[in-house]
Every structure is written in C-alpha cells, then in structure tokens.
Specification:
This protein has about 150 residues and is an alpha/beta fold. About 30% of the residues lie in helices and about 25% in strands. It is built from five helices and nine strands, in the order βββααβαβαββββα. The radius of gyration is 14 Å and the shape is globular. The two termini are about 25 Å apart.
C-alpha cells in the first residue's frame, strides 16, 4: 500500500472513450486527485461522482485534475459519465492492476472494492489519502482541504 510521501505509481489505462491515458502525461503538471471507487451507477459511487462533478470547477481553479478509477469497462464508464454529466476522466482498471499498485484495500471481507482517494502533488508524491467506503461525499471535502494547503 502506498503511503504519504511515496511516488505516484506509473500506469496506463483506457479512459471512458477507449483511449489510453498515461498518468506520466499529467504527473508534475497539475495536482492530481485520483479516486478509486467500487462500481458505476451504484448509490454511493453515483453520489461520490456527482459530488466531484458539482465541485469540479473548484478543483479546476486550484489547478487539479480529477481522475476516477474502477474495474468497470470503458463502455460502462462512458454511459455513467454521460448520464451524470461527469466532466472528468474515468479509467477502466478491469484487471485491478492499478488498484493493486496503489494497494487499495477491499472492504467487507474483500467482496467490495475499496473507496480511496489519493492527492498527488506536482512533485509526483502522495500528499494525502482518504479511505472510506461509507462516506463517499467525505472524499471530495477531504481532497479540497488538502489541495488548498498545497
């Protein structure tokens, strides 16, 4: 599991448009808010995604890029993003390889993928981690507070 102060893992995953997204293209240029979530179109994940959407301009004004990652397919991500007008990148980690690189824990005996948000600074290091499956909206508030301190 990566910790505060560790370097951000390097990875490439397909986005909701089926195009490869290489994290190296964004690292060091902006503060990154990378959030792992269990599944598109579930109540908690929809609440979290829509909360990021509703505060997206704040993140953007602070020089952040928001990136959501789950094991759903690119097609499912595309439908989810369109349905809820999500203005940020969703990445498909169907093999759960990036989830493993970050060390995102599972919850409820590993049956439900964890919900963890990472703040990555312009120095490419992890500045903050928020881990809570049951408080999806708390991820947005925690991320904003950390970003504002950067």
């Amino acid at each position: 599991m990566i910790q505060i102060g560790d370097n951000c893992p390097i990875f490439t995953l397909p986005n909701q448009f089926g195009q490869p997204f290489n994290i190296s293209d964004s690292l060091g240029k902006k503060t990154l808010v990378i959030y792992f979530y269990p599944k598109d179109d579930t109540p908690g994940c929809t609440k979290e995604a829509c909360s990021f959407r509703d505060r997206f301009e704040e993140f953007k004004d602070l020089g952040c890029e928001v990136i959501g990652i789950s094991s759903d397919s690119e097609q499912k991500h595309s439908e989810f993003a369109q349905k809820h007008r999500l203005p940020f990148i969703l990445l498909s980690d169907q093999q759960k390889s990036v989830r493993k690189q970050f060390g995102v824990p599972g919850n409820l005996f590993g049956l439900i993928p964890g919900r963890v948000t990472y703040i990555i600074g312009k120095d490419k290091k992890v500045k903050g981690i928020f881990n809570s499956l049951l408080n999806p909206e708390g991820h947005i508030q925690h991320a904003l507070e950390l970003v504002k301190k950067q």
